[in-house]
Amino acid sequence: MLTGKVVKVDKLSRSVTIQVNNLTYVLQITDSTRINRSGKEKTLADIVVGEEINVNLVLRELPNGRVEVAVLSMDLAESVAAQGERSGGSSPNQPAPFQNGPNPANVDGPIISPNR
């Protein structure tokens, strides 16, 4: 099992990028991928940049020696306190912040100015 932070959700390519410690993983979402929150089935649209995510993998070895992911299951945190959260208090006409995701060159945290 991997536990990490979502750093990018790409709905077009159907992938989720997570950071686990100093490693970044791009997970391809397929029809067999199961996404859950509190035991309820969710979709790629329910994954929010900044939230913690648990990923369970079941691998299988193919006859040619390659290893592929047989089952990919994601468990989302129960409450989302991440960027882009849609809560009852926000305006439905107002776009979520950071719609393009974080800068990939800055995945270890925000830039800190020496002039602070």
Describe the protein in words.
It is a single chain. The protein has 116 residues and is mainly beta. The protein has a domain at 2-80: OB fold (Dihydrolipoamide Acetyltransferase, E2P) (Beta Barrel), CATH 2.40.50.320. The chain has no helices and seven strands. Residues 81-92 have low confidence and may be disordered.
Which strand order does the major sheet show? 3-2-1-6-7-4-5
- Judged by helices, strands and strand pairing, the structural class is mainly beta
| Beta strands, count | 7
Portion in helices: under 10%
Oligomerization status of the protein chains: single chain
- What order do the helices and strands follow? EEEEEEE
Q: What distance separates the N and C termini?
A: 39 Å
Radius of gyration: 16 Å
CATH homologous superfamily descriptor of the domain at 2-80: Copper binding periplasmic protein CusF
Number of helices: 0
What's the CATH class of the domain at 2-80, please? Mainly Beta
CATH topology of the domain at 2-80, what is it called?
OB fold (Dihydrolipoamide Acetyltransferase, E2P)
Average pLDDT works out at 74
The major beta sheet can be summarized as: 7 strands, mixed
Would you identify the regions where 5 or more consecutive residues have pLDDT less than 50?
81-92
The CATH architecture category of the domain at 2-80 equals Beta Barrel
**How would you describe the shape?**
globular
The proportion of strand residues reads 35-45%
